């Protein structure tokens, strides 16, 4: 794949991947998300994403809504932990319209209070709907346990009370801090002339000045390689301050673990030794029990990440032949959903397993899960097993890349954070280079059950 890239004088980076398809996916990705929020700003990045659509110096909210929709296009946005994306899907003939609108809302929104007052209730409804879905909520609360005391831990949406407190001034302060051309990229995937695209964006952003040197305001975590690998609660400078009862860099005071363990929102009913050194049971009064286990994992720059990526897919990836699905669902009929996931951030990562089951089956499912994982720690894959696993994951990647929208968002994100041009061939080569010994080593480093943190809703 041949990408085109260019950096404007104001620091905005542009990346374009040509395609013969008539639909263009394009947008801005901002290098700021929920982990950039200061104490007391929880949910503010997501709040800004919603209210950015509510008016600019040139357009009212209804004009923004109609600008692309009226020609059959689509305008959307979402907030992640480390970035925020505003993007459009449009026929190539309407590319100038998309560039103009996206630039206007990202860099010139006025956040009118009368519109905020209405949109806040929409956001609060989103928060409540999420709270009504334990299978989704448990992921956020699990991250809060793994990264407790750190901005990566709190959920993206924030709380309803916090969101209702935000005003025009809060949105303007946050976006002025991070919505800068030198802290963003513009990506495009489609049949457009690159030189014309650069001219369009240059014209649309001509009033924006470079602001080099502005702080990213990110509290970084120690990489997994520097953490203690003998405990389920890794130690790093942040953790050491918490254990000493000091204020962390996020402004949060944590008590010593022997006095009171930080727990997710909800009532901590019990802490016991349920196949894990660190188990939290929360009474959510759900019909089905929801369970997560996991540990911190490798950051996106760690070369071991590819081996963990492959092992994670073998254990609990989307394939029906994933080992956990076979053990818990197909052979024993204990669960409907079981999956493992890994997420790599710039400075750390998280690996986890989730399943939902009847309450009386929790311990059995945990024992089966432990048994699946320990097989990969105790014994390396055979060459035949390794070859089959690589063949499967490369096929899954190829199918996923056929989704042009997701592919566009993914290559934009890679370029935003790491300056990488997404290269599927290079990724395949890295997968092919993984050995059975590397698989066994990352299993021992990251997945060892004695290091698990366990969260249970019941």
TrEMBL record:
SUPFAM superfamilies linked: LuxS/MPP-like metallohydrolase (SSF63411)
InterPro entries linked to this entry: Metalloenz_LuxS/M16, MPP/UQCRC_Complex, Pept_M16_N, Pept_M16_Zn_BS, Peptidase_M16_C
Domain spans labelled Peptidase M16 N-terminal: 20-159
Cofactor(s) this protein requires: Zn(2+)
Superkingdom field: Bacteria
Biased composition (Low complexity): 225-237
GO MF, one annotated term: metal ion binding
Protein name: Insulinase family protein
Species this protein is from: Hallella mizrahii
